[in-house]
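During the reporting period, our protein records have gained a structure token line. One record among many is quoted in full directly below:
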Amino acid sequence: MIPTAMQRGLAAFSLFICVCAVSPVLVIIIESFTSANYVVFPPPGFSIKWYIETFKRPEFMASLMVSLIVAVFSSLVATALGTITALGLVRREFLGRKLLQQLFMMPLSLPGLIFGLSLLQFFAMRAISINVVTLVIAHIIITTPFAIRFVSTAILGVNPEVERAAQSLGADRFRTFWHITMPLIRPGVVASLVFTFILSFDEVAASLFLSSPTATTLPVRIYVYIDQNYDPLITAISSILAFAAATALVIIEFTIGMDRLFGLRRA
């Protein structure tokens, strides 16, 4: 049993870590309500004019739509591919399985800049124009290894005897997967969808090489804007994203539950 003093020390340390992690975001949110025309903390006055200005900038709204489209499609496809791949890697024994597991994890250690440059050269050599579709392809490749990890962990937690019992009662492989395996690994699949969506939405390095005037993601738009300007507009956009992420987490907590989402508690 952990002594009371140690428990209090761990609680204080956890609180300190939380404060360190959240403080930069709070500073950005407070700065976004400044009435000044420059970034300063603390703000000399408060106003919502930078939020109003955000919605008057069509380039940011267009980039937001591009980011949402890319993140939705890439998370759906990556999770579907990751689920199929994870089933094969976890449930089947075949020659080269260990090698495939290592190969699927390689993109996790590859720097995004190198990956983006490689994809840009690949598309250029084949005369493929850079657009939303190429962005979706790039983000699927980036996020699929994470989906494989999430779903593989969920499948490893399912007793194979349960699936064999269903098949011994006459269920084919598809019905066994859909009615037995899928409900049991659903938290891992949902976690994969959420995580790959966030990963795709925030991706910058590879998207820098694969963006075009008609297909620029919001993080790339913010990066380019900061490079040429530094006013509170960028803090307002960042705060909107933070509010959206917080809202999504609250909805997930009240509908699914964060502990179930990440497999910490069974349904």
